[in-house]
Write a structure and sequence with these properties.
The structure holds two protein chains of two kinds. Chain A is mainly alpha-helical. Chain A has helices at residues 3-12, 16-22, 25-31, 77-85, 92-99, 103-115, 130-142; strands at residues 34-35, 62-65, 90-91, 119-122. Chain B has one domain: Rossmann fold (3-Layer(aba) Sandwich), CATH 3.40.50.300. Classes of the chains: A mainly alpha, B alpha/beta. Chains A and B meet through helix 1, helix 3, strand 1, strand 2 and helix 5 of A and strand 1, strand 2, strand 3, strand 4 and helix 2 of B. Chain A: This is DUF742 domain-containing protein. Chain A: It holds the Pfam family DUF742.
């Protein structure tokens, strides 16, 4: 990397010096500064408390409803909305956009719902090797 | 625990595609959202991440730390490649300080497009630096804004000091075909980078 760019970075970002010397530790360190607050307690008024952390869901983790919304969603509109929108497999980030909640919150609620069996994590029907994915994407993009 | 009245979801019988992503990065106002909108098959969706920023660099034992809440918008589009693969395009949050979001977006990404605005080239240094450090393959797309000076791709390459193997392409974020060409160049670059015999 050029010295010019380094200088510009250092000017631009007060963490620049740290990132330059610390390699990969920079972003990790920055991460400590941010917390995801959940005013809706992950949709759990009956609160199971902190407990074991909910499943970690990536933005593109696919989830699908394991059942239709029922009595247990009474007064839990977030869960009901998630179940309704996940009748077909959805990525977590799409679900968040569709139910209009912050993605971190949807992740937390969906994690709990996977634990209690109302949502299922699902993988692709036909898992492909990365090489095949890249070629499929290339062909698909060319035909746009 | 499924209750007695639960029904199987329709999703059970449908083919579920693999979800993959490409990151569209660049400085504030470089055209990221425009580019996502130009190629997405859906109106780009938006979600947000709400963050509490705890006070930093101050002894917090007193319990008097100040917290401010920040909302980070996350826009994304989608391209159905075929029945097996769906491609998501994520614009990076405009503010540079949200590195944690960048990390998450970059994780598992096929690659990245760095949109460069020649009027403010320095605003994409962060992105170039980030993807180099993370070894995420990327291309630089020079967004040709109306009235911008006509820099050529090589001038931009020199100014950004990117590796000779990294494609630098002139593009128009508003134009679907142009954005498609950028994405094709990226995926070609990624494929080439993965086969050592073809690289160099």
């Amino acid at each position: 990397m050029s010295h010019d760019r380094r200088r510009a970075l250092a000017r631009h970002d007060k963490d620049g010096a740290d990132r330059d010397s610390g390699g990969d530790s920079g972003p990790d360190r920055v991460e400590e500064r941010f917390l995801r607050p959940f005013a809706v307690a992950a949709g759990d008024p009956d609160g199971s408390g902190p407990g074991p952390g909910p499943e970690t869901l990536d933005l593109l983790t696919l989830v699908v409803a394991a059942r239709t919304p029922g009595r247990s969603e009474w007064l839990r509109p977030e869960r009901e909305a998630i179940l309704r929108h996940a009748l077909r497999a959805r990525t977590v980030v799409e679900l968040a956009a569709e139910v209009n909640l912050p993605v971190g919150q949807v992740r937390a609620i969906a994690g709990r719902m996977i634990e209690d069996g109302s949502l299922q994590r699902c993988g692709p029907s036909r898992p492909l090797a990365r090489k095949d994915i890249l070629h499929a994407v290339l062909v698909g993009l060319r035909s746009l | 625990m499924a209750s007695a009245d639960s029904e199987p979801a329709p999703g059970d019988t449908e083919a579920i595609p693999q979800a993959v992503k490409i990151i569209i990065a660049g400085g504030f106002g470089a055209g990221k959202t425009t580019m996502v909108a130009s190629v997405s098959e859906i109106t780009p969706l938006s979600t947000e991440e709400v963050m509490t920023e705890a006070s930093y660099g101050i002894d917090d034992l007193g319990g008097v730390e100040e917290k401010t809440t920040t909302t980070v918008a996350l826009d994304f589009g989608r391209i159905t490649v075929n029945s097996d693969v769906v491609l998501y395009l994520f614009g990076t949050p405009g503010q540079d300080r949200f590195w944690f979001m960048w990390d998450e977006l970059a994780e598992g990404a096929l690659g990245a497009v760095v949109l460069a605005d020649t009027r403010r080239l320095e605003t994409c240094f962060h992105a170039v630096d980030f993807f180099e450090r993370r070894e995420v393959p990327f291309v630089v797309a020079v967004n040709r804004f109306d009235g911008a000076d006509g820099y050529d791709a090589e001038e931009v390459r020199r100014a950004l000091d990117v590796d000779a193997a990294v494609p630098v392409i002139l593009a128009d974020a508003r134009d679907r075909a142009s954005c498609r060409d950028v994405l094709v160049a990226l995926v070609t670059h990624v494929i080439r980078g993965r086969s050592p015999a073809l690289s160099g």
